[in-house]
Each structure stands twice: as structure tokens, then as C-alpha cells.
Amino acid sequence: MRFGDTGVAAMTGIAAAPAYLLLAGQASRTELIAAAAVVLLTAGFAVALHRTASRPMQLSSPALLVMARALGSLLPDTGRVAHVLIRAILNRPPRSIGPFVHQPFRHGSGGAADAGRRAVVTLGLSLAPNGYVLDPDEHQEIPLHRLAPASAVPDREWPS
Length: 160
Description:
Oligomer: single chain
Distance between the termini: 20 Å
Structural class: mainly alpha
Helix content: 55-70%
Number of strands: 3
Strand content: 5-15%
Strand order of the largest sheet: 1-3-2
Low-confidence stretches: none
Largest sheet: 3 strands, antiparallel
Shape: flat
Number of helices: 5
Order of helices and strands: HHHHEHEE
Radius of gyration: 18 Å
């Protein structure tokens, strides 16, 4: 799916308005006006970035599924990470906690579709609290740091 300037502005607005209102903690008239200003500013910035992008990126249909799965893992991952952190506070381990996992991944070509897939996978793997992508430029795997143990996903195209 290719986004023109209108699509980029709309997607940014769809993300920015609820995020602002969530952080504001209320939906009063003043906050709605401020949210509209935030949407206009972020949409304008997103369009400017989209127009000046040096690397084309294209998103496909599985990208939305991957992002939905990443959002769905927020709550369970938060619980697992909280458990690990509470144990670390109580036990004071002598070294850093959490394993490093090598997620198998097909890097793909330099084309727009593969660039979009790599971007969505990197964001999806880093969005939930139990995963942090260390080096997205690895070619056949993505090194991750996890606080709570989690095994690699067998899907090399769309791991999340």
C-alpha cells in the first residue's frame, strides 16, 4: 500500500490525536483544540518527511497485522517485565538481566516493499516492553534484548 501526502497526514493524525488526549488525561474543549493543533503540526511534519525521504518505503497488508499483534502484546509483556524488574529490585542480581535472542529474519532487497517490512518489524519488535532491537541492519537475523525470556519466532518474514 502506497501512501501519498494525504495518506501520510491522515495516518499521522489518527495516531497523534488519541495519543495526545491519552497523555492529557481528559477530553475537554481546551484539550480538543490543543489536540487539533498537535495533529496539524505532526501531520505537516510527517508530510515534509515523506516528501524528502531518501529511501522509498512501501507497506503491505501483513504490516497492519504485525502492528496489531505488537499492540496486543503490550499488556502481557508489561506484566512479564514488571515481574522480572520486581525480582531484580528484591534480589539485586550481580550482572545485567535478560537474554539476548537472535531472531531469524529475511533482510530482503533494497526495494521499497522490503524497506517497509523491515521498518514495521523493527518497530513491532521494539514496541512491547519485553523487546529491544539492538541492530536492525543485521542481514539474516535481528539481535534482540529481552528482559523476560522469550524464544525466537519461526516466521522469518514477519516476526513479532
